[in-house]
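User: quick one, fold this
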Amino acid sequence: MSAPRQQARLFFVALQFLTRVPVPAWAGAGFQAHWLNGCVAWFPLVGALVGVWGAAVLLLAGLWWPPLVAALLAVAATLWLTGAFHEDGLADTFDALGGAVPRERALEIMKDSRIGTYGAAALGLALALRVALLAAIAASAPGFAALALVAAHLLGRTAAVAVMGALPYAGDADHAKAKPLATAPHRSTVRRAAVGALAMVGVIAAVAVGGSLQADAARAPWVWVGAVAATGAVVLAMRRWLARRLGGYTGDALGATEQLTEIAVLMVCAGGL
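Assistant:
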């Protein structure tokens, strides 16, 4: 199989794994488990596409309704597209690690489908922050808000890949929901994801700097540098936290990483207004 065709397959595997978007039948023909591990290089691009979807809803809704309503609809649209995949991981992670429980008990809690106090509080606060921050940006500059949303989603998935590359898997690899993702991706895969993410942020920055977005902060390169720096800070914090509490990452912890990175990026963008 040609390299371009295989990469196209890996992109569709990533798209199918992270969203509910249907993919061509040929992409899954002869599926091999290691494809799921290799497809993480495409996570940032899939994140960017989720962000584009949310940004389109934000801009269209903003034509008829106030920024807060538009932001609510945009976040709801991304939740629908992803099946609240990462939000579920956030809730499970904070349920497991919010209290002072041993590692083994924390891993058991992560497998529990029920949501507890810590998880509910973390999920509610995360959703409220994302909506509030997006609405604040959109009130001043809708175009800037759209770009910030795309950046937040693509950097969120990039952060999850970085954590995968920095830590071993903490759970029972034989019983993992997505067993291939229990194996750390190859460094070259993580590097491709990072390079691709930086390139996309560069494109976003170029559009912002060269466009008319009604916000001086949107045209300031430091905002986008700050977004990348915030992503790195979340990765470092999650790496330390997960290493100390679990000795590695889990799928739920990757979801929490993505969510916290989204919030961090939106905070940087809103803080620049």
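User: anything notable?
Assistant: The two ends are 49 Å apart (CA to CA).
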